[in-house]
Structure formats: C-alpha cells, structure tokens
Specification:
The structure holds two protein chains of two kinds. Chain A is mainly alpha-helical. Chain A has 20 helices and two strands. A two-stranded antiparallel sheet of chain A has the order 1-2. Chain A has one domain. Chain A starts with 6 loop residues before the first helix and ends in a 6-residue tail after the last helix. Chain B is built from four helices and no strands. The longest helix of chain B has 31 residues. Classes of the chains: A mainly alpha, B mainly alpha. Chains A and B meet through α5 and α6 of A and α2 and α3 of B.
Chain lengths: 515, 119
C-alpha cells in the first residue's frame, strides 16, 4: 500500500492548524508556509499523476480495513488529474493573493486556504460516498470563510446566501445517502458499482430516487440549471482570488457526477442507467443559455465572468451527459481548460477593478497600464469564449465532435455555438467599454492647490509578481492548446479507465492484491 | 413504530422547508436545524428500525443485531450540522450587523436602489 495517496489530504490538514495557531500574527511566516505547502502539494500531485499514468487503480485503505467495511482512497488517472489541476490552480491563486495583498485584508486567509485544498483533494481521492460528503463539508466550511474574507456589506449578504444554499444542499446529500444505504446496504462506490447492476429495473425505485437526489446535490455544486442561481451572486461578491479558486469548486460537482453516475449508476445498471443522461442533458443545455444571456446582460465585470463560468459548466455537463468514453474525454479536456480560463478572468478582473473605482461596465478614466490589462483580458476572454488559438476553441471542438448522437446533436451543437457567439459578444462589449472607451474619458484633473505627494507616489502600477500569475495561466492555456494531441490521448485513456467498471471494482474490493 | 418515525420525519422536513423559504436569517437557521434533525432520524432509520438490539454482534446472545453503520453516519452528520449551524449563526449575525437587514435574498439591483436612495 502506497502512503503517498493520503498526502494531498494530510499535508494541508496538518499545515492549516499550524498556520492558524502558530503563525497567526506573522503574515510573512504564514505566507511562506502556505506557499511551501502548496508547492509541496503540487510536487506530490505530479508524483501521483506519474504513478497513476500506468493505468493501474491504486487503493489506499485507511486503517488497512478491507474495502467495503473501511474507508478507501482511490487513485486512478482521473483523480490524479483533478488533484494536479487543484494544486496548480491553488499555487497560482495563492501567489496572486499574496502579491496583491488580498491575504492580509482579513484574518486566517492561509489557514482557510489550506483547509479548502484539503477538502478538494479529499473529495477527488475518496472512494466512499459518505466520505465524499465529509470532504464536501470540509471544503464548504473553508469556502464560507474564504467567501466572506475581508468582509463588506454585499459580500456578507452574498456569503450568507451561499452558506444557506449549501447547507440545504448538504441536507439533501444526507437524505440521498440514507436512501442509497437503505436500498443497497453500502456506500462504497466500488461496492455500489458491483451491487446496483444486480438490481432489476422494476425493483430499482429507491435507487433511482437516490441517484436523482445525488445528482441534484452535485448539480448544486456544479451550478447546473435550475440550481445555478447561487453562483453569480457568490462569485461576483467573493474576493477575486477566492473566486478564481472557486473555479475548481464547480468542477468538484462535475467530477462527482462523472465518478458516481458513471461508475455506480452508469451504463450497465438496468435500473438507473437512463436517468442521469435524461435529466442532465436538457438541464445542461438550459445552463448554457443562462450563462450566455447572463454574460450578455451583466452590468458589472465580476457577474459577467461568473455567468461565463455558468455557461462553461453547461458546456462541460452537456459532454458529461452523453456518458460515453469519447464524450467524457472531451469533457475532461474542457474541464481542465475552463478551470484555468475562469481563474484567469477573475485574476485579471481583480487587477483591473482594484485600479478602477468600481467594476460597473461604464467608461471610466483609463487605468495605468491599460494596454497590458486589455491584452491580458483579451487573451483570457478568447480562451473562455472558445476562439482560436487558445485551448477553449479545441475544447469546444472536441465536445462538439463527441456529441454526434442523432437525438442530441441538434440541441447540443446549436446551444454551444449560439452560446459561444453570445459570450463573445458579451466579452467584446465588456472589453471595449472597460479598456477601449475608457481611453477617451478624461482623467480627473489634478487639483492645483493641494499637493498630495503621498498619493501621487502610488501610481498603482502592477508589478511583475502581480501580473505573473495571470500570465502563467495564459501560458498554461497556450500549452494546453499546443499539446492538445498528447493531452487528449492521455484523457482518452483516463475516461477509458473511468468506464472500466469491472477493473475499478476488482482493484478496490480485491483484498489480496497489493495496491 | 414505522408510521411514527415516518410522520416525524415528514413533519420535521415540512417545517424545515417552510422556515427555509421565509428567507430571513432567524427562521432559516431554525429551518436548517429542523431539516438536520429530520435527516438524522432518516439516516437512523435507513439501517432498519429495531428495538432492544445492540449494534454489535453478541458473542453469547442471539445472532440478531442492529446495523451499526447508520449510527456512525448519524454521529458524523450531527457533528457536522452542529458545526455548520454555529458558522451560519456567526455569518448571519455578521451579515445582519453589516447590512442592517436580516433578509437573505439580494435584490437584483441592490446597488442601484442604494444609489437612488443616496441621491
């Protein structure tokens, strides 16, 4: 048994209380510990991806209890990929938060950040649905703290709304788990995958209820219509680096749908296999529309980006809803891309908004380095909207290519293409108002009688460290586009492993095999 | 006994959902508490209802026992919902003090109306 698998959970879990209790008055120490921890997490994630790349499913049995009785962590290509994505995003967001000073605007940013990473990594690694619930709660409770970091009227109110929404979701999750346990007698994903196919279709009513309840819970996390309404208010009012980190949180929901509804309820289970795709597909189509119209109608920059996140989740889940290996690998490529693209937009928006008086989309005096920010925003918006040459175009192309089933093709293609067009229009409008028309608005005249030397010494130019994380993300998006061939070949293997249900069950439940 | 447990869960859930939909901080906190009670009883019942049976296999007695796993799940769920309620109370209090309103929904043009009020 390889102990590296527990480390993405263990490391932040140890680091977070240390930062909270030992380094609470020393921001420099907390920053260095947090960065060091996240770099180590990235190194571990790279190592785990290397381990998982050979295609075996590694199992970590906590306390060495055999699988259906004890809790297991499962490392396969998909979970390794998600942990790696989390670690890379976290490091970039952390550097941005430190460089812009966001972490010093409230208490305990770094401790909460590490707890958040613990929850996210745990949710990606666990092989037990109740354990998934626990890790969901860990990541949520940390996200509540991060969401209201540095306070403020609107932020507190949006935070309250977010907390209430997610607590209701957690209750629903527990109802789903109770139903599932009552009808199958297990909560281990591999054990579920072994037992649910044995339930004949006419006796599967309770399991079907559980499957739909679980899908609603994951849909809340993934911001799927009709439970997407919390996302724009939350992301738009969260501190921008936190919103960038939250880009991975919606993907936790998508990952959970992929994992649970493919492995346990997916193809091969006569009672439940038609459920997820029947409901997920139309919901995802409407989600794309909501996202696109939101982008078009947003009056402020942060909600605009938040709605583009909703739209990208719709595109992602349209591909997930096909529940075929081909479409899933396209979905995974788009997932990696849209995580970075959304994070990139939030980071740029942060750089811009802190230099403007508000984030409303009206012409204001242009900021310093207007050209630089405009270029960065342009690149990120291209990625998000799905225009060449960045990876968004390839991601959407892969998704479109995978969705050729006669019944769904018309809906999926028109939704994605029209949605992309509206998103482009929305971003073009926002970019031209914020960056272009601003140049024609005269700046405030210097007041002659008072010489405010102190204020003039702070021209608010972004230094290299502040811009570096954003450029890093754009570079990642470019690399993703350049190496799209090898990446999508790897992702095809990943989704093949995800759909290899028998292999998963054998790896987790077989106690003789030394994983 | 089944009908009592089932109707308890139903009443608690209905009350919880009703309070949740009031969209004001205090009723919502109470509603979520009711919902978490309902779900705890529900989880408990998911291991089948049994009276006078220990949750472990008895070496001496009969081989009947009640399922221990839901009890462990309920314990976890209680701890989590307790912690979450505490967090919710703190955030609700913070939001109330900041915004001087205990409404949970945000008006779509909150800032516009605010600006109008100032003007």
């Amino acid at each position: 048994m390889m102990h590296w698998i527990i480390l993405p959970v263990f490391l932040p879990a140890i680091l977070a209380p240390l930062i909270a209790f030992v380094m609470r008055y020393d921001i420099v120490l907390a920053r260095s510990a947090s960065v060091a921890g996240t770099v180590m997490l990235l190194a571990i994630a790279l190592g785990l991806t290397g381990v998982a790349a050979d295609g075996t499913t590694h199992v970590y049995r906590l306390g060495d209890w055999p699988a259906p009785f004890g809790i297991v962590l499962v490392l396969d290509r998909l979970s390794a990929l998600m942990v790696l994505l989390t670690a890379a995003l976290a490091l970039i967001v952390l550097i941005h938060a430190i460089a812009t000073g966001w972490d010093a605007r409230g208490r305990h940013f770094h401790a909460l950040f590490q707890f958040q990473l613990m929850g996210i990594c745990g949710a990606f690694l666990t092989g037990d649905i109740f354990n998934l619930f626990v890790f969901f709660e860990v990541l949520l409770i940390a996200s509540y703290g991060l969401m209201i970091h540095s306070g403020g009227r609107e932020r507190m109110r949006a935070g309250l709304q977010y907390v209430v929404m997610n607590l209701a979701g957690s209750t629903l999750f527990l109802f789903a788990l109770g139903t599932l346990y009552a009808s199958t007698g297990t909560l281990n994903i591999a054990d579920l995958a072994a037992r649910i196919p044995e339930i004949p279709a006419e006796e599967a009513a309770l399991v079907r209820v559980a499957a739909i309840l679980l899908m609603i819970v994951f849909a809340v996390k993934a911001a799927l219509f009709p439970v997407q309404f919390w996302l724009p208010a939350t992301y738009a009012n969260a501190p921008a680096p936190v919103a960038a980190l939250f880009a991975i949180m919606t993907k936790v929901g998508a990952y959970a749908i992929l994992r649970v509804h493919t492995t346990a309820f997916g193809p091969g289970s006569p009672g439940t296999e038609d459920l997820a795709s029947t409901w997920l597909f139309p919901a995802a189509i409407v989600t794309i529309a909501v996202g696109a119209f939101g982008v078009l109608g947003a009056k402020r920059l942060m909600p605009l980006i938040a709605f583009s996140v909703v739209g990208s989740m719709g595109t992602l889940l349209v591909a997930v809803a096909a529940f075929s290996p081909n479409a899933t690998s396209a979905a995974l490529y788009y997932m990696v891309h849209s995580t970075f693209a959304a994070a990139c937009l939030f980071l740029i928006a942060d750089l811009v908004i802190t230099r403007r008086s508000a984030d409303t989309l009206i012409p204001m005096p242009s900021t310093v380095q207007n050209g630089l920010f405009a270029a960065l925003f342009f690149a990120a918006a291209i990625a998000m909207a799905g225009m060449p040459p960045l990876s968004g175009f390839l991601g959407k192309l892969l998704v479109l290519d995978a969705l050729r089933a006669p019944g769904s093709m018309g809906w999926a293609w028109s939704a994605i293409l029209v949605g992309s067009l509206l998103t482009i229009v929305g971003f073009a409008r926002a970019g031209s108002v914020v960056f272009w028309k601003s140049t024609s608005v005269p700046g405030p005249l210097p007041v002659p009688d008072r010489i405010t030397v102190e204020e003039e010494e702070q021209p608010m130019t972004a230094n290299a460290l502040q811009v570096a994380p954003t450029m890093m993300v754009i570079a990642i998006l470019a690399v993703l586009a350049v190496f799209a061939g090898p990446v999508s070949a790897y992702l095809e293997q990943t989704s093949a492993q995800l759909f290899d249900r028998a292999g998963y069950i054998a790896a987790v439940l077989d106690t003789d095999e030394e994983g | 006994m089944e009908i009592i447990v089932a109707s308890t869960i139903a009443v608690l859930t209905a009350g919880g959902v009703y309070l949740l939909l009031r969209l004001r901080t205090f009723p919502v906190i109470l509603g979520l508490a009711l919902l978490s009670y309902a779900v705890n009883v529900f989880l408990f019942a998911s291991g089948r209802l049994a009276i006078d049976q220990s949750p472990i296999l008895s070496r001496y007695g009969e081989a009947t026992y009640t399922d221990p796993l839901p009890q462990a799940l309920v314990l976890t769920a209680i701890v989590i919902s307790f912690g979450m309620t505490a967090v919710l109370v703190m955030i609700g209090l913070g939001a109330y003090l900041e915004a001087e309103s205990d409404k949970i929904d945000i008006a779509p043009d909150a800032e516009d109306t605010e600006k109008d009020a100032q003007a």
